Amino acid sequence: MADSFKAIKVTPSVYWVGAIDWDIRNFHGYLTSRGSTYNAFLVVGEKVTLIDTVKAAFKDEMFSRIASVVDPQKIDYIISNHAEMDHSGCLPDTIAAVNPEKVFTSRMGQKALVEHFHMDASSLTPVDEGETVDLGGKKFTFVETKMCHWPDSMVSYLHDEAVLFSQDAFGMHLASHERFIDELDRGVTDYEAMKYYANILTPLGSFIEKTLTKVASLDLKIDVVAPDHGPLLRRGEDIGGVIEKYTKWAKQPPTDKVVVVYDSMWGSSQKMARAIEEGLSDGGAKVKMFPMHDSHRSDVITDLLEAGGFVVGSATMNNGILPSIADVMCYLKGLKPRNLVGGAFGSYGWSGEAPKILNATLEEMGVEIAAAPLRVMYVPDDKQISKSREFGLNIAKKMMAKL
Ligand code: FEO
């Protein structure tokens, strides 16, 4: 293991020494279909600084990559930008192994690390917002990015080579040997960046807006963005592009796209969904359908991030909604997508609670209800199919009125 893995040089003094996780598919409910990386970086000057670590199980891989550049014992400093365990999991073992002079973290990071690992708080050096330190001729400035996405989150800026170590921000779950985004398929990286934002950052739009404004006000020259997951960015158009996308996603402006999620028991709610789809399309909306018996919640939120409409349907089962719909609604409610117009529908046999339950959930989510819950007993006839189509058309009209 010791010399299995090599570091990758990303600038004259910065090396990527992270780990590639080709196997992970479940990141607390988020389907990571293309795996992930846990990025750690070594900055080598008169002193050696390690920025972030990796998930505990990948410690040997990180140490192997470090050892390809420098004896790990020569690490003088560690900077912990974010306390979540995919980046701090092997921090205690790393501290024990290399005995660094200092471990820098935000004040909230110090608290979080102590609470995670029951470390001695005095073994960590908290830094202040905007503080600049000189680590063996390498000048770093620390900028707090609270709630982007944890209270402890901060980013570190290396002045000499204009590298922004952005922790989770601007990252994506994508396993690859290529270390730069310009070496990868653009369609894949665009989708994975959006999926990452949608599944991690959607509820934090107002914090992200403030943080982007704060970082912009610092007027930093940024040549490389080095996130803690996925590829790095080194071209101006890629860096500008992701900042532009984050600015848009933080606001979630209304669009002409509508997401329809549904599940059926004997096909009637599915028939309604197809008629609603036609009505939405007639009204000018771009429709994305998610049959939840075979769709993943994390793909739904990815499409909702750039949507202006959200329609949900379920058959009524045992006076409630189908389990597949309960799953996705629980996930979406927590992620708080904004600026949506929508409605609920479904067929039933006896009591027909599902559309009312779903309508109430949409209201709790802040979705503007464009049409009263649409219910059909048993199997929709031609008249009810027309009503379903009209239901979709009415929602599309309300959506279009917002553009
Ligand atoms: Fe990749 Fe918030 O940890």
Overall description:
This protein is an alpha/beta fold and 403 residues long. It folds into 2 domains: 8-251, Metallo-beta-lactamase, Chain A (4-Layer Sandwich), CATH 3.60.15.10; 257-401, 3-Layer(aba) Sandwich (Rossmann fold). The protein is 36% helix and 25% strand. The protein has 12 helices and 24 strands. The protein has helices at residues 59-67, 85-88, 91-98, 107-117, 186-201, 205-217, 236-251, 268-282, 297-304, 323-335, 354-364, 382-401; strands at residues 8-11, 14-16, 19-21, 26-27, 30-31, 36-38, 41-44, 48-51, 77-80, 102-106, 125-127, 132-135, 138-144, 154-158, 163-167, 224-227, 257-263, 286-291, 309-314, 316-317, 320-321, 341-348, 368-369, 374-377. The protein has a 7-stranded mixed beta sheet with strand order 1-2-7-8-9-10-11. Bound molecules: MU-OXO-diiron. Residues 82, 84, 86-87, 149-150, 168, 228-229 line the site of MU-OXO-diiron (FEO). MU-OXO-diiron is lined by residues 82, 84, 86-87, 149-150, 168, 228-229.
